[in-house]
Structures are given as structure tokens and as C-alpha cells.
From TrEMBL:
Residue ranges constituting the Xylose isomerase-like TIM barrel domain according to the UniProt record: 30-283
Name of a matching Pfam family: AP_endonuc_2
Native species: Phycisphaera mikurensis (strain NBRC 102666 / KCTC 22515 / FYK2301M01)
Protein name in UniProt: Xylose isomerase-like TIM barrel domain-containing protein
């Protein structure tokens, strides 16, 4: 497995507290990621003008330049991620919003292919969510629209030779691995798969290793982060690796059991000084425990004990 970090988790990512405006976000980000010891980076694609270095308006030349910079930094970039569905819902009750979102994601697939990525993370829509609290889409309507959208996006993905990967998120859709597996199987396409985020599952009262075993070969890519909640106090939070209750070691073991050997990308926000180095070390220990030696302790409790 390859240890990677999301661009959103870097100083110039989704919630940078003090990123200087005059710095080159690509150059400084790639240098920091390489210095931390990651194998690669996941580039994140957004709309023109949004924070970041990669947008749906970038042309093939710009994408090639980004890819060359990644290669020159000694990093791999096998995946790209889009979060545009949170603000432009592809299953919205508004037909104009749905059309705009679909067009944006077709462009995201093209830009990801121009970058040389092998897979694009796609949030298939939102029925309701704490992330997009204003959304209220009836489930059967959303299901029909997801099918229509995926069919169209798959046509583009197949022509481009890139995987379209549905992420399990807090979006009110696909909260069962059986439902998600059946949905993917229903298309019969080698280009459709799952982008599994193990850190999103405990908050839905689901055990990540079980999802991994059920989804099996449908899992094309993996995100990791930690999560903790206090049920009696009604509090929850996503956390940095090894600082929560996600069974990370068990999850990696489950990934090995299904033969998964691709990218494992940490997606942790917000950035803080030292986050990349700490995350790289935790992730490296998690996916390559043999490198620690026979007497080393694992980065997280083996059976959930804190």
C-alpha cells in the first residue's frame, strides 16, 4: 500500500489558518509532503477561484505542468477528489442545479485524466447532511437521480480510462454496504467502484472491517482519518490518526485480506504545524508495521483498548 495525503489536509488546503498569499501553493505543498515522507498526494479539484491549485477550468497543459511538478517532487498522484457535490448537489430537487453539478463533474473527470490520475472521488449526492443542512431530498428521488448521473459519468470515465469512485460520506445515501455493493454491481462496469473512507463509518454505527469484507473488490481507493464520540454527551469529532476510536489496525488487516494494495490517503482537517509529519509517521506505521521491527508497538490499540 502507498501512503498518501489529501491536498485538503495541507497548509494550502481546505481550511488553512495562515497560508501566505504570496507563496506558490503547489511548490510549497509538494515539498512539505515529500519532506514528511508520504509516497504520494491526492489532488483536489474545485471550481475556478476556489482555494487550491487545480480547477475544472485548467487546460491539459496546466494539468501536465502540475503532474510534472508532482513527479519532480518524487511523489505519486493516482487519485483526485471532488467536493463540489456539497454545494452543487447532483441529486437536488432543482433541475438546473443537477445539470450544473453533472457538467462540473464531467469536467472533473477530464481534468483528473489530464493530470494522469487513475481515479476520481465522487460524492454521488446529498439527501440531508450536517455538512449541507439545507438539503432535503426524498430517498427514492435521490436514488433514481444517482443512477442517471452515474450512467452518464461512467460513459465519460470509460472513454477517458479513469475510475469513478463513489465515496461513503455523511450524505444520507448508501449507509449500508449491501446497498452500495448492489448499486455498483448493477452497472457491470470495471470503471465504477467505491472510495472507502473508514473514518466516516463509526459515526454511522458501522464497523469498517465489515464494510471492507462485504465490498471486497469493489473498493478501488481508501481514505483514513480517526473519529471519536461521547454518546452520553452528544458530542463527536473527526480526529487525527490514532487519536480516536476507529479500528484502524483491524481495517488495514481487512484490506490486506481482500488483496488491496493501492493508495491509502489520509484526509484530515484542519492543517496545523506538524500535521503532515505526524500523519505520515502514523500512516506509515499503520500500513507498514513490519518496518517498525518485531518489538515495536502498533500505532493504535489492536482491539480498541485505549
Amino acid at each position: 500500500m502507498l501512503s498518501c495525503i489529501s491536498f485538503w489536509s495541507t497548509r494550502h488546503g481546505i481550511s488553512p489558518p495562515d497560508a501566505p498569499a504570496d507563496a506558490d501553493p503547489l511548490e510549497t505543498t509538494l515539498a512539505a509532503v515529500a519532506e514528511a515522507g508520504f509516497d504520494g498526494i491526492e489532488m483536489c479539484i474545485g471550481r475556478p477561484g476556489e482555494r487550491g491549485v487545480f480547477s475544472t477550468d485548467d487546460d491539459a497543459r496546466r494539468c501536465a505542468a502540475i503532474r510534472q511538478a508532482i513527479d519532480d517532487a518524487g511523489l505519486v498522484c493516482e487519485t483526485a477528489a471532488s467536493g463540489m457535490s456539497w454545494t452543487s448537489n447532483p441529486v437536488s430537487e432543482d433541475a438546473d442545479v443537477r445539470a450544473a453539478s453533472l457538467a462540473e463533474h464531467e469536467e472533473a473527470l477530464r481534468r483528473a485524466a489530464d493530470l494522469g490520475a487513475e481515479a476520481l472521488l465522487y460524492v454521488p449526492g446529498v439527501t440531508t447532511s450536517p455538512i449541507s443542512p439545507g438539503e432535503r431530498v426524498r430517498y427514492d428521488h435521490a436514488w433514481r437521480r444517482v443512477r442517471e448521473n452515474v450512467a452518464r459519468l461512467l460513459d465519460t470515465a470509460e472513454r477517458l480510462g479513469i475510475d469513478l469512485c463513489l465515496e461513503n460520506v455523511w450524505n444520507g445515501l448508501f449507509y449500508s454496504p449491501l446497498e452500495l455493493a448492489a448499486f455498483v454491481d448493477g452497472f457491470g462496469s470495471e470503471r465504477l467502484g467505491v472510495y472507502l473512507d473508514v473514518g466516516n463509518l463509526p459515526g454511522l454505527h458501522q464497523h469498517p472491517p465489515h464494510w471492507i469484507e462485504i465490498l471486497d473488490h469493489r473498493i478501488r481507493r481508501v481514505h483514513v482519518k480517526d473519529y471519536a464520540e461521547s454518546f452520553g454527551e452528544g458530542q463527536y469529532a473527526f480526529r487525527e490518526l490514532t487519536r480516536g476510536d476507529v479500528p484502524l489496525v483491524e481495517s488495514v488487516a481487512a484490506l490486506r485480506s481482500i488483496g488491496y494494495d493501492r493508495t491509502v490517503t489520509a484526509e484530515i482537517m484542519p492543517w496545523r504545524p506538524g500535521l503532515l509529519a505526524d500523519t505520515a509517521a502514523s500512516l506509515r506505521d499503520l500500513i507498514h508495521p513490519e518496518a517498525q521491527g518485531p518489538d515495536a508497538t502498533t500505532p493504535q490499540r489492536m482491539a480498541g483498548a485505549r
